[in-house]
Write a structure and sequence with these properties.
With 477 residues, the chain is α/β, with parallel strands linked by helices. The protein has 14 helices and 16 strands. The chain has an 8-stranded mixed β-sheet with strand order 3-4-2-1-7-9-10-8, with helices on both faces. Strands 12-13-11-14-16-15 form a 6-stranded antiparallel β-sheet.
Amino acid sequence: MVDKTTTPAKAKKPLIVMKFGGTSVGTPERMQKVAEILAEHAQEAEVAVVVSAMGGVTDMLIRAANEASQGDNERWKNVRRELARRHREVADQLLSAAEQAAVLPRLAEQVGNFENLCSGFSLVREVTPRAMDTLSSLGEVMSANLLAAILRSRGTPAEAVDATELIVTDDAFGNATPLFEETNAKTRQRLAGLRRRGVMPVITGFRGATREGICTTLGRGGSDYSGTIMGAALDADEVWIWTDVDGVMTTDPRLVPEAHIIPEVSYREAIELSYFGAKVMHPKTIQPMMKKKIPVWIKNSFNPTCPGTKIVPAATNGQAGVKAITSVSKASLVTISGGDRLTFTQLAGRLFSSLSLGSVPTLMVTQSSAENVLCFAVHDGDLKRAKARLEKAFELEMLHDHLACIEVLPHVAIVVAVGENMKGTPGISGRAFSALGRRGINIIAIAQGSSELSISFAVRAADMKEAVKAIHEEFKL
Ligand code: ASP
Ligand code: MG
């Protein structure tokens, strides 16, 4: 018999992880806006929040630590005042009296931690990567506590959660890698109670902890990654990354004013774009989504009605070949010739293992086996390290003149056309070449992988803007 008194089970609300970056929580006004966005979405969805430090705070903390370690006590004390002032200002403007009473002591405690750590660095004239992680991620602890208190002041049940209780990582301080299985289990367990009670967790971005509970960080800009790590752990329906731009653009609007937002990109396109410097998200952000195929949205907290860009597991058929163009303006090309003593594979093997030992990432690689020559591009910031590694790896050959040489071509830019649907479409590179040729731009090197996800062109840095424009125009982006 059907019991007439039971109401049909309410449809389960979707779970959305929403990550807010530093500019989105940079001032009291911005924090208030975030609280409004969250209160609104909490009506139709279950929301878990991941938050960055207030804009500029992480830079300030790192600077203070370095100055303290040089024995400069004046400067970190100024930072201490500024740290207290900025968070205090938010508390003063947005918290109820009761919440102020609860949260101000916690903020004071973090400022106290800052002070203790900096005095320590100053005393021993050193800051270790491990201590730096604890210090540089204090901003997240403060912003998460504030945001949770703001939400509560406005009637939305919320609680700050320190990600050191959720994200388990290895001990590569400064750039730690999450241990996903442990992270998933710990996150689900720690957040289960809050979720059951309908309390919105406000989780610190950027930080995690080793198995032993020592604080680590996920690398600069790592809160995006924290967002998707949480999304995967909680089996979220979506992850929304709230930032200060409307979404992923066809290219940098400072280079091409006609650049515009792309409604949808694939995981692989997004990874490619972020690797080559498109500033929308941390390059590792998509990685935790791969297995579960959870969509990620890039949205603008300054313009929340704009739909933004949806990042989906795979490109759909209807999408264009070239979707976006990204570029790296400060790069160098390094060419290494193996001479006649080394086979090409020996040359390549030695070259890449030496770069990998130095953790030098390459931007593009081209080769000519017949000439026994390899050429690769690196960020200018990595050039010195790359050269030093190569000179060491090929020391003997160079000494005996068996290796022709290592040559560096500076002032190079890498322009990358990205689009998953370039695959199997003939004529795309031809069109790009012609577009550059018509404008008299010389291509120094080219690379395209067999995945056909992107084509990279090395051009003179002075030609970069024109090259991006030419390709943007050619493909009518
Ligand atoms: N606050 C950290 C940083 O500035 C992490 C982040 O914002 O994503 O690098
Ligand atoms: Mg960021």
